[in-house]
Amino acid sequence: MAPESSLTDSSPLVGSTPAGYGTLTIDTSVDPLSSSVSSVRLSGYCGSPWRVIGYHLVVWMMAGIPLLLFRWKPVWGVRLRLRPCNLARAETLVIEIRDKEDNSWQLYTVQVQTEAVSEGSLELPAQDLEDGRSQAAVGAVPEGAWKDTAQFCRSEEARALRYYLFRGQRYVWIESQQAFRQVSLLDHGRTCDNIHRSCSGLSLQDQTVRKTIYGPNVIGVPVKSYPQLLVDEALNPYYGFQAFSIGLWLADHYYSYALCIFLISTTSICLSLYKTRKQSETLRDMVRLSARVCVCRPGGEEEWVDSSELVPGDCLVLPQEGGLVPCDAALVAGECVVNESSLTGESVPVLKTALPEGPEPYCPETHRRHTLFCGTLVLQARAFVGPRVLAVVTRTGFCTAKGGLVSSILHPRPINFKFYKHSMKFVAALSVLALLGTVYSIFILHRNQVPLHEIVIRALDLVTVVVPPALPAAMTVCTLYAQSRLRSQGIFCIHPLRINLGGKLQLVCFDKTGTLTEDGLDVMGVVPLKGQAFLPLVPEPRRLPVGPLLRALATCHALSRLQDTHVGDPMDLKMVESTGWVLEEGPAADSAFGTQVLAVMKPPPQEPQLQGMEEPPVPVSILSRFPFSSALRRMNVVVAWPGAAQPEAYIKGSPELVAGLCKPETVPPDFAQTLQSYTAAGYRVVALAGKPLPVTPSLEAAQQLTRDAMERELSLLGLLVMRNLLKPQTTAVIQALRRTRIRTVMVTGDNLQTAVTVAQGCGMVGPQEHLIIIHAIPPERGQPASLELLPLESSAAVNGAKDPDQAASYTTEPDPRSSHLALSGSTFGVLMKHFPKLLPKVLVQGTVFARMAPEQKTELVCELQKLQYCVGMCGDGANDCGALKAADVGISLSQAEASVVSPFTSSMASIECVPVVIREGRCSLDTSFSVFKYMALYSLTQFISVLILYTINTNLGDVQFLAIDLVITTTVAVLMSRTGPALVLGRARPPGALLSVPVLSSLLLQVTLVAGVQLGGYFLTVAQPWFVPLNKTVPAPDNLPNYENTVVFSLSSFQYLILAAAVSKGAPFRRPIYTNVPFLVALALLGSILVGLLLVPGPLQGPLALRTIADTCFKLLLLGLVAFNLVGAFMLESVLDRCLPACLRRLRPRRASKKRFKQLERELAEQPWLPPTTPMR
């Protein structure tokens, strides 16, 4: 077979060695497959006349049945009809996707499409090739590896563009490389300078080239017509089995039953068609975005085009009033205030600034503060340098951020859940049982001299009895009830199958700010700096003397003014509010300063300042700014004021990082101790620094400054201390989760010491538990990477270190076997790169992960999943998008009703939603087990009844089948799922394996009891003196009514109700059965009808074809059998629940869990580990 490629394969191409095969690297930034796929493999196929003839012969000889199989398994049809060939000549491709978790392969087929290309349409002018822009359209790569790809369709052999579409992504054929390539990778490695050179726009010819390759800028959601949906639905295996059953019942003269099932199936299909169509239309309308946009053309011209015509490299002119963004674009001129709630769930508008020029490769995630994402709403656009706000298109269609999210909805990640796999195996086992029953029925019916055609019909009818066709619908009802209950509590779920996964959670990661703690921050005060000494805390920053620190507090932010309201980061809002200064933008700001500026901060009128101030406060203008970056942990501004000879640069960010950028002589010796005194108390600390700039105080000069130029030779100005209180519900929820043995982990971008304090305050780390800070030192000066451990008690011993996160001078050797570990993002990165074998042990004990960048949060979730944890993630949806999507159960705290960021969106503003999701998940999973057991027992009970009646050459009647399947079983199966979750989250977890000893023991014993009661009732009947045997020479249903049928039907009808009650136990995952009032009413009502039908047959006796039994004592004896069955069923379930686990522990030694994290926990319990002095490879 072909070699496989992992997601980290360095080659971006689909090779074709050996012929007909290739591997594919996935663009992880846009492809929803990337989180669950380890490799993708392609196989090429083309037409073969002999194979086509053979294919049609097989289809004709088997009466078209293979066409149905090939619809369910298209790959079979492709491999039978076509022959393998080189990818260069392939007409059809088979895509094989390997799952990360279970290494299983999923197969898909796609058609290679060909688009005619006119003569010379892809030829590019020489000047276009020189600047590299047109090369980028088809993926120019470093070192000139394939610079001629812009003209790959010019050869005499090829006048067409070959490509295929898979899950919305387009893959084009590159002739020179004999490979397909994902179009989103074509401009991979494009630098910021390249993007700025594109601001002049594309020529029409260049735009045509790119349109041919990239396709239209459309996120197309397919909405099938009702006839197409009908064909898809009717050819579903489930409805195929239903159609087979209906035909069989008609042949067996069960007209009423067949008609009812036909009507129910038809109604179900119609409802399913309507629901599917409605969902597709809703999603299509939600993502549809068509607008007229203005683009630049070379020479300064502008042209209005439809948004579907946009291609990467086009330069958009954004209107001042804003609007929806139709693609992903890098902002190259001006600023925008953007609402990104549709993508991230974050309701706070975000300020986007122009992309800085430089040789750095452009990345939408790294440069998200300079990137406008498709589908987001620009609230306001402002131009500063030049008259227009410009943005260069970087991605279109499904390659955009919105396209990736839509693709993840259309093609959700497959769920690797043991329960679903076991359910399929169990249905297969029932099929084998049906086969055995068929053999037995053939033997019995032949012995009773039943005609051959009747034997065939009866034997096949037994298959429809054993394999319950209503099982999928009954299982779906469980999650629908859970989804409805969650919605009533303000938790919205867009992936119902994830609800059951919530019941298996073993570890939950939490963001800190806005999740564990309050979203807003309160300013505690400012710690000014004088010389090399910190002054006492100033509680009211507005009373600071006019100077660099006050100006930094008033201007170092990314706030904007929208309809007379300040919008932006909550921390910035609180900081500016504490100064009392007011923001002005637009013409008012320009007139206040006398020239064009980004914004002006005005001091408060008549605000009393400190006595003895040397100068009155004057307005300060903001000339340039780099908004806060989670990856860089800082932001910068350049400001000036009237009379200033030169502007000043201010920086605000992580204290450790800012101090590292400052001149050593401006950092007090007690910096680390002062910082720790605040962070240890749980305060959030931000450092401010600044310096004069040797440029003129103008907007043009400031805009030319690079971030690096602003951040050299800074002087520390002071510390801003903010209070971030725990939410009232946090501690109770964390303690509840820990009591139930669910690990809780904090993943935050905040300071390590602050995170540790919050972890201790909310109970993640108990008062008597040890916490160790683990620190990794990267390789430097020829020394290999190394690790050191620091008990928290010694953390105050840091003396003179600029960064407690990076302290490297501890020599204590604590035993980490029973300890919590805390580490920073930098340490996590070193562990990932230099200590991959040690990383799993750290993750098993890690509780606090601080200073984590957004991508590191995602990596952490994925690494935990590799250890076979079922991982939950709860965050506010802003910097946690990747982690929320990667987690098994992602819960976004957002006011939006539903978010595509994560499966669950909670309108609760606290983590109280997490136990709710877990309780509902456990309830849904336990209910799924109960419903599955009930449906299996119902089938086996009816199987036993039919076999008993077949033995004496009779069967259940038409209306009897209807009464059992529709009136009794369907009613109780639907209502038994309504029982709500337990009010308290317990330690016990529902079993994940259906094929386990407790479940199989319950099924076996209950079936034995059912068979014993039915056989007992039958033998009691034939022993009665008034018993008259049926006429065996007359086949069923013509020999109805008879005594045997009446007794078996009556007893089995009671058994369906008894089994439903017996498997519907409450604790520990569900509420008691008596809380499900509709279920109890249904049991009582149906039970009363059955008792009346047995004792005093009324008008139902005729339609049900029941024989009158005059012996009252015998009827009471049958009720006694029913009572015995009732008591026995409940006793069996009770004894199995209480005694079976203990018996199993005695009979067999407890097997160690095979889960990777359990093995590591045992290893750590047996043998402690110590940090190595050299990297482990």
From TrEMBL:
Subcellular location: Cytoplasmic vesicle, Autophagosome membrane; Endosome, Multivesicular body membrane; Late endosome membrane; Lysosome membrane
BP GO annotations: autophagosome-lysosome fusion; cellular response to oxidative stress; intracellular calcium ion homeostasis; intracellular zinc ion homeostasis; positive regulation of exosomal secretion; protein localization to lysosome; regulation of autophagosome size; regulation of lysosomal protein catabolic process
Quaternary structure (record): Interacts with MYCBP2; the interaction inhibits the ubiquitination of TSC2 by MYCBP2. Interacts with HDAC6; the interaction results in recruitment of HDAC6 to lysosomes to promote CTTN deacetylation.
Upper lineage: Eukaryota, Metazoa, Chordata, Craniata, Vertebrata
Catalytic activity: spermidine(out) + ATP + H2O = spermidine(in) + ADP + phosphate + H(+); spermine(out) + ATP + H2O = spermine(in) + ADP + phosphate + H(+)
Stated name of the protein: Polyamine-transporting ATPase 13A2
Ranges of residues in domain P5B-type ATPase N-terminal: 39-173
GO molecular function: ABC-type polyamine transporter activity; ATP binding; ATP hydrolysis activity; ATPase-coupled monoatomic cation transmembrane transporter activity; metal ion binding; P-type ion transporter activity
Topological type in the membrane: Multi-pass membrane protein
Gene3D superfamilies membership: Calcium-transporting ATPase, cytoplasmic domain N, Calcium-transporting ATPase, cytoplasmic transduction domain A, Calcium-transporting ATPase, transmembrane domain, HAD superfamily/HAD-like
Key word Membrane present: yes
CDD domains: P-type_ATPase_cation
Region called Disordered, residue ranges: 800-819
Family affiliation: Belongs to the cation transport ATPase (P-type) (TC 3.A.3) family. Type V subfamily.
Organism: Callorhinus ursinus (Northern fur seal)
Keyword Protease set for record: no
